[in-house]
Design goal:
Layout: E1 2-6, H1 11-21, E2 28-30, E3 40-45, E4 48-55, E5 58-65, H2 70-89, H3 103-114, H4 116-126, H5 131-148, E6 155-162, E7 164-165, E8 177-178, H6 179-207, E9 210-218, H7 226-239, E10 247-251, H8 260-268, E11 273-275, H9 283-288, H10 295-307, E12 313-319, H11 326-339, E13 343-348, H12 356-359, H13 366-385, E14 388-394, E15 405-410, H14 416-423, E16 427-432, E17 436-440, E18 447-451, H15 456-461, H16 463-469, H17 472-479
Parallel strand pairs: 1-2, 1-3, 6-9, 6-16, 7-8, 9-10, 10-11, 11-12, 12-13
Antiparallel strand pairs: 3-4, 4-5, 13-15, 14-15, 17-18
């Protein structure tokens, strides 16, 4: 697809909007050109805003008088383009022309600026968000706000990354290492991870920061041995002031990595929330996505976690997995409800460029989109009936059906970390591979990022370079005027 942008700087937003309708095509953006080549979209700004869509036999244009200011003209361009692409495709997008990761944060911002009633109208009338998704956004924002109010100017959360998994799922694009190939790295990695946690704790202590939540992700942290896991968890408890910590989560995501010894290590180290993620309870779909565990492995791991005393267990399901059907998804969700998991996160399949499914040429089509939308509609209805609340939501590019990921929980058992990281509420200090420290100015929206190395061998070989980078944390806080008077 060729996108021609004339007399404006609106290429980024129009490219993202075009991708909603052409998720698998390369979109070439041209601001200087001599000729136009089909299939194409042309946007132009002069005394009017005009958009032309010329694809196959479809050739149609729309225009409107130019407004005052780039923001309004960019919105006008997006509105005209969206309507033309809806006419071309016959598809209305559930989130309208919104393409951002954080629609709830946008809705909250608009509520603060113009009040909830006007914000609702902006979502419906200007952004073309469907009434169904607007109601989901409103409910999620209300539940999020209760959690956000817990954060103080000196608050921070800790992320710890473990980049190992039993195998790679076909939809996964995260940097991880199969434990079969990288087993020799797990020991030196976990030792250095303990050191990074210790030194990061020292930085937090010097700054007088208040720990709100801890989250172990990856990868699959429970791929580590019970002994390694115990060492890393103990390092957190010994390196940080845990007296203010409201939540300690570990992703025990793969049922085939869970045993009693590891669960006991988690429990003994004050972990109070875990995730055990089947993604589906259809045996064939599990095979399709490269998960080596069985359905019974999930049931057994879930029961064992309850037996070991865990009473806040999250489970992930994914709508739109290859080979899954609406009846199959309904069965998976109904089974999780039967188990009464405290939290249920419903994701939508996202076709990331680096995922095996994408490189193998699987495409998103109209039928997939329709099925995924029915799956999420069923999830919302059943979860609401069972008194689960939506407490955080985010979106990604190339999602089947242009949908969303939603965390649902029983009231009072929401994951604080998920809300804080998605809202960018406060500083996140990150340790381990793939971690990104996000330094947040407590007086505004400014964020500064420090990236850890992605690969275990880099992390091990260049550890001191990484720690040198993290000295910036102290400098960041010394560069801003810190006032914790309302903490």
């Amino acid at each position: 697809m060729n996108l021609y942008v004339i007399n404006s700087s609106f290429g980024f937003e129009t490219e993202n909007l075009t991708r909603l309708f052409f998720p698998n095509e390369k979109i070439n953006v041209y601001k200087a050109f001599d000729t136009v080549q089909k299939p194409c979209i042309i946007t132009e700004l002069s005394d009017k805003v005009s958009v032309t869509v010329n694809i196959g036999d479809f050739c149609r244009s729309a225009e409107a008088p130019a407004a005052f200011g780039d923001d309004q003209n960019e919105l006008l361009t997006a509105q005209l383009l969206y309507r033309l692409l809806c006419d071309f495709s016959g598809i209305e997008q559930p989130w309208g022309l919104l393409t951002g990761v954080r629609p709830i944060k946008l809705f909250r911002k608009l509520c603060g600026e113009m009040g909830e009633s006007a914000a609702r109208q902006r979502f419906l009338n200007d952004y073309f968000v469907s009434p169904e998704k607007l109601e989901l956004a409103c409910a999620t924002e209300q539940n999020e706000s209760e959690i956000l109010s817990l954060s103080k100017p000196d608050s921070f959360s800790l992320y710890v990354g473990v980049p190992f998994c039993p195998s790679r799922c076909s939809y996964c694009s995260f940097v991880m290492a199969s434990v079969e190939r990288a087993k020799k790295l797990t020991s030196p990695y976990s030792e250095l991870l303990c050191e990074e946690i210790l030194r990061t704790g020292e930085l937090a202590s010097k700054l007088g920061l208040r720990l709100e939540s801890v989250y172990f992700g990856g990868g699959t942290p429970t791929t580590l041995s019970a002994e390694q896991l115990n060492d890393v968890l103990k390092a957190v408890n010994q390196s940080f002031d845990m007296s203010t910590c409201r939540e300690f989560t570990v992703e025990a995501g793969r049922p085939d990595t869970i045993d009693r010894e590891k669960l006991n290590a988690l429990k003994e180290n004050k972990v109070d929330r875990i995730s055990i993620n089947p993604q589906t309870l259809d045996p064939q779909v599990l095979k399709n996505i490269g998960r080596r565990h069985t359905v019974d492995d999930f049931y057994n791991a879930f029961a064992l976690a309850q037996e070991c005393g865990f009473n806040n267990i999250n489970t992930d399901l994914i709508a739109g997995l290859p080979g899954d059907t609406l009846p199959g998804f309904k069965h998976s969700l109904d089974e999780i409800l039967r188990l009464q998991a405290e939290c249920i996160t419903v994701h939508t399949l996202c076709m990331k460029r680096a995922a095996d499914l994408t490189t193998e040429g699987v495409t998103l089509n109209r039928e997939d989109a329709s099925t995924a939308r029915q799956m999420l509609r069923y999830a919302r209805e059943r979860l609401t009936e069972n008194e689960y609340i939506p407490y955080y939501l985010y979106r990604q590019t190339r999602m089947v059906g242009n949908l969303e990921n939603v965390g649902w929980s029983k009231r009072g058992l929401e994951s604080l970390y998920n809300v804080y990281v998605m809202d960018e509420t406060h500083t996140i200090l990150a340790c381990g591979c793939g971690g990104v420290t996000k330094l947040k100015n407590p007086h505004g929206d400014y964020l500064e990022r420090i990236f850890n190395y992605k690969y275990p061998y880099e992390y091990i070989d260049r550890f001191e370079e990484l720690m040198k980078r993290k000295e910036r944390i102290l400098q960041f806080y010394s560069d801003i005027t810190v006032d914790y008077s309302d903490k």
